Amino acid sequence: MEPAVLNRERVALDKKNRMPIFKLFDDYSDEDFYGVQRKYSIVARVEVKFPIEPRYRDRQHYILSDINGAKIEAIATRYEIVKYFNSLLHEKHVYKMHNVWFGLNPGAFNFRHLNGTMELYFTQQTLVEPYVVPVQMPPFPKHIFLNLDDIAELPNRTLVDIMAIVVHLDTIHRTMWGTFRKIVIMDARWSLHTIKVWGDLLNKNALHWALANENYSIIIGTMFRRFRKQECLESTDHTTIHFKPFHHNTHYFEPIQKALVARNDRQFVVRYLDDQRRR
What we know:
279 residues, alpha+beta, CATH 2.40.50.140, five-stranded mixed β-barrel, 7 helices, 24% helix
């Protein structure tokens, strides 16, 4: 009987000392879709912590990013779990998390801020600790829309990250909710689109916007929300604008920039705005 006892003790010790399985948000396998759910460990930065849903206070959503810049939506359910993670996690902090679950994004059946394939769940078994090892998180998201026509297929109110060229600044509008400005941008397929930028993103970056308009500069905008009725992207409290970003995809826009500068004629923007007003 002694060998059996030793084997059981060895197995128990192996389980205790077993290294956790760290997972990247884009690292999917068939087991994640169709097999038995497994617990994983992740290193992630909390990009956004949304308010607790007010009705029952039993659900809270987060947006996390991994060391490659990929994003995923994380969800905490049940009052005790929501309360615990709400006090524990803070925006822009990096954490090491153990025993998290991955599941399929329900898509159109339930509202989600991101349109990813998978989503992540915090449970009672999830352990969180600050990630104290110095790590350089990527400055830009991994998945950025270069062709903005693809956004039209996404569910309403989805958050997206975009890259485009600034071609026109419309007049500033003042409303009871604050000031905003519609800005015309051009994507990598020479298509014109409109974004609505609110508040501090305008005031604090007034000079940057003016120079971007003058020089047809490239921008990266994160966390823009798509509104189906307005047919435009709108900035949120979590939006960040990067002017003249050092990014590997800027080479798609360089020929467009050169053509716009050489043309030096913005009548195409005037025609686009006239068409938008007639709708």
